[in-house]
Each structure stands twice: as C-alpha cells, then as structure tokens.
Amino acid sequence: MTFYELLNVSRDSSSEEIELAFSVRLAEFSREAATGSEGAAKKISDLKYARKILTDPKLRAEYDKALTADENLNASP
User: Fold this and answer.
1) Which of 49, 51, 61, 76 has a Cα at 20 to 30 A from 40?
2) Among 23, 75, 20, residue whose Cα is nearest residue 44
3) What distance in Å separates the CA atoms of residue 42 and residue 12, rounded to the nearest whole number?
4) What's the pTM value of the predicted model, to 2 decimals?
C-alpha cells in the first residue's frame, strides 16, 4: 500500500488536501484505538509518517521517484 492509498488521496493532491485527509483518517483510527484495536496504533504511526513524507516537497519528490521506479520494475514482463 502506498502512502497515497493509506491517506486515500490521489498523487496530485495538494499539501492542504493531504493534511485534510490525514485529519480524517487519524480520527478514524483514533476511535479504533480508543476501543482497544491492536492495529490502530500502528496505523496512526503509519499515517503520521505518510503525512510527513507527502507534505515535504523534497521528501515527496524522492518518494514519488522511488514509487515510479518500483511500478516500472513490476510492470516489466
């Protein structure tokens, strides 16, 4: 799963859209964590890391480059 999929945003989303999606997803997993969901804490950590990468222009460019390279590698016969 990519960071974009985790946050439920498209690759061309703005930083503002990413921040909004982060807030929505964080609220979802925070409710799960409050009810004792074991995986919720991990998801929250993943969400925070995805937000950090996708809202930093330099880190996002590096991530997108690596993601594209991986997709191209997997698309090869």
Assistant:
1) 61
2) 23
3) 26
4) 0.85
